[in-house]
Amino acid sequence: MLISIIITNYNYAEYISGCIDSCLRQSYPKLEVIVVDDGSSDGSQDIILGYGSRVTPIFKENGGQASAFNAGFAASKGDIVLFLDADDALMPHCLDRVAGLWRRDLSKLHFNLLLTGKEGESLSLVYCPGPLPRGDLKPQMLDEGNHVSMPSSGNVYARDFLRRIMPMPECDWRRSADVYLSNLSALSGQVEAIDEPLGFYRVHDKNISAHVRNSRFQIAKCRTSILREIRTDEILSEYCRQQGLRYRTGALTSSYSHLQQVLVYDKLAPLFGEARLRAPFYDYVKLSAVILKTKPSLKITLIHLWMLLIVLIPSRYAERAVVLSYEKGAMLFARRRFRERKGLFHPIRAAIS
After folding, report:
1. 32: number of Cβ within 10 Å
2. Is the distance from CB of 300 to CB of 334 less than 8 angstroms?
3. What is the per-residue pLDDT for 206?
4. Can you tell me the mean pLDDT for 77-103?
5. DSSP letter, residue 54
6. Residue 152 gets which letter from DSSP?
7. In whole angstroms, what is the distance from residue 15 CA to residue 346 CA?
């Protein structure tokens, strides 16, 4: 069984060698390594060319993550495919473990990752602290529009599945293309999981906390995330319609995590000269309705009251409260506990936010 590793790179010259080396050191013999450079301007291409025939290089104009996935998959031949971010790496026995558990009925296998710092130092944390889901996740996807999954570097997909859903729509997925693949794979076949870490997820200043950086809220990134989830809901609904499945339309956009993002965006939008999507009080009422259905714990109730404070105080103070919430993990903890109760825990980069 041939395994394709497709490394996608954009201006990660400082990390790309470590990533490629980890692939070439795999104990599993039947593999190909394809490196897609998405228009880097930092010397990455010279580093990639230095590997000669040991890798298959693809150099293209910058088009985003989905376009890099599409280009790499079109050049690949593997029976199963792993899309690896250039700032991450694999353990030497990773593919051996994957191949040993692979079955024909699988659409995806995901495995845990160890978190490392910018220089590769261990952070003594795993990306997902709880057991990864496995088996038939279709009922959960149809009802909730999401499932626990790893980021790009922790997923391996069946080629037969990828043939059915690629090429990906590139304009919708310049970032977070793994969400598109992961969600559709759970609707297409069985999912297997390996809870032990088989790779490394690097935490650094280019990926830490999508919504907060340098103690300021990133309003544009928050809006992009909201719109991406709305688009994901539409894609899931259309895919299920084509497959004769009954998807609960709006499942993803009525989730606590999505509504929380919308509330924060609507509260802070005027501070950044942006238009609101709705009204903060309306967002809070919707959040409250979702929470009340779950018999919330005391901690979740207290954190939800913290959200009410954010709604009530002036926007300039609300931003400070939001930044503090993200930096201390309070808002993310509420998401995590809520989703654990529903059986839907997704780390949402909690350990690195």
Report:
1. 17
2. yes
3. 65
4. 97
5. G
6. G
7. 26
Q: DSSP assignment, residue 133?
A: P
Measure Cα distances from 127 to 49, 146, 154, 172, 280 in Å. 32, 17, 10, 25, 32
pLDDT in tens, 229-256: 899 999 999 999 999 999 988 888 888 8
Higher pLDDT, 349 or 321: 321
For 202, phi then psi, to 5°, come to -85, 130
Write down the pTM of the prediction.
0.83
3-class DSSP assignment, residue 323: helix
Q: What is the DSSP letter of 116?
A: E
What is the three-class DSSP state of 66? helix
Residue whose token pair is 């990390």: 15
Which residue type does 105 have? D
Pinpoint the alpha helices (H) of the chain. 13-24, 44-49, 65-75, 94-101, 138-144, 159-165, 177-186, 219-243, 256-268, 280-292, 298-312, 315-328, 330-341
Do the Cβ atoms of 168 and 149 come closer than 8 Å? no
Distance CA 34, CA 76 (A): 7
**pLDDT for 347 beyond 50:** no
Q: What is the rounded average pLDDT for all residues in the chain?
A: 88
Residue 207 above 80 pLDDT? no
C-alpha torsion sign, points 141, 207, 350, 193: positive
Quote the tokens at residue 37. Answer: 């450079």
Residues near 157 by Cβ (< 8 Å), separated by ≥ 6? 80, 81, 82, 83, 107, 108, 181, 185
pLDDT tens-place string over residues 17-29:
999 999 999 999 9
Q: Is the pLDDT of residue 173 over 60?
A: yes
Print burial letters for 240-256: b (CB count within 10 Å at least 16), e (below 16): beeeeeebbeebbbbbb
